[in-house]
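Re: beginner question about structure tokens

> Can someone show what the tokenized structure looks like for a real chain? I only ever see the sequence side.

Sure, here's an example I had lying around. Input first:
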Amino acid sequence: MPIKRNSTRTVSIGSTVIGGGNPLIVQSMCTAHTRDAEATAKQATELSKAGAGIVRIAVDSKKDAQALEAIRDNCDANLSVDLQENYRLAASVAKYVDKIRYNPGHLYHHERSKPVEDKVRFLTDIAAENDCAMRVGVNSGSVDPEMKAKFSADDAVSPMVSSALAHCEMLDRIGFDRFCVSLKSSHPDRVIEANKMFATQRPEIPIHLGVTEAGMPPDGIIKTRIAFEQLFAAGIGDTVRVSLTLPEAEKYKEVLAGHEIIDDFLAGRVRTVVKFNPDALNIISCPSCSRVENEAFIDLARQVKDITEDLKDEAITIAIMGCRVNGPGETDDADLGLWCGPNYVNLKRGEEKVGAYRYNEILDHLQIEIAKLLDDRNEAA
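And the corresponding structure tokens:
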């Protein structure tokens, strides 16, 4: 099916090019621990062979950074490095990767006394010296607090878009244009609204699409499909990722799902009349990556789905996050949130912490909180 796509500029990332009417590129992310160079290189290769045009790797420590050289030597995939807590690690890894992704919210929190634009300039200098593209990756759960304070508490979209636009303006002033932008949320409707708002104001910038923490298949694929189809129909999107909670050996299924959504859309097999239902049970779980500190997180996500089978018609959002980097903030919007550490799972009700429980205890406490939540709603009604 012929579709009209926005005339975004081209951005080269290793051997692939996004934007400018080029075919949509599917991405994925390694779940092997980055410091295990052999396992990470092997998984990156597998993802690339499955059809991932770009493979992202998380770098959170010096040990992770030191592994990049060996990963690069043993892998031909186009690599993107994901910087979260320490943007300065870019200097150690840029020569081994093809793209640098940073999160404006995390950049805000690191070295608070330094102007954000100075940090961005540091990254662009590193990227330019090492032939790297960049991605400005905005997530709804980690927008910097100063940006959020400018809008009402119930407006989750405007802070995301404003953050992306502000960083694009910084990059314009610096003179760096080899970048794309992503605006992600676990809510498909917010993803659609945010990307439409951004594309209207900056139509020339390539956009990376994704519903973050979409969860497990098939629900996570359906959520993502709904967002992608509506955005593709508006001409928006140059590269995509389907973020699914999958064990390491099945991570390639993210790539297959991305290609299937694109192929179905181009063939006219769409379900855009289907809208994500805000009045039904919604289980959000992150796609897992090398930051996950306990693989039991994946089993936990499946168990939460199993024990809530009878609650499909209840308007409850439960978020299960696999690490301490995204866990605290990304669970704030959920009715009940679980973010997982090495030995304990932190249980939250909204932004309030209920407690920390061992993996073999957490389901009982979650069920108690679900019952309390339903009782409170019935009382209010």
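Each token stands for a local structural state, so reading them left to right follows the chain. DSSP finds 13 helices and 15 strands in the chain.
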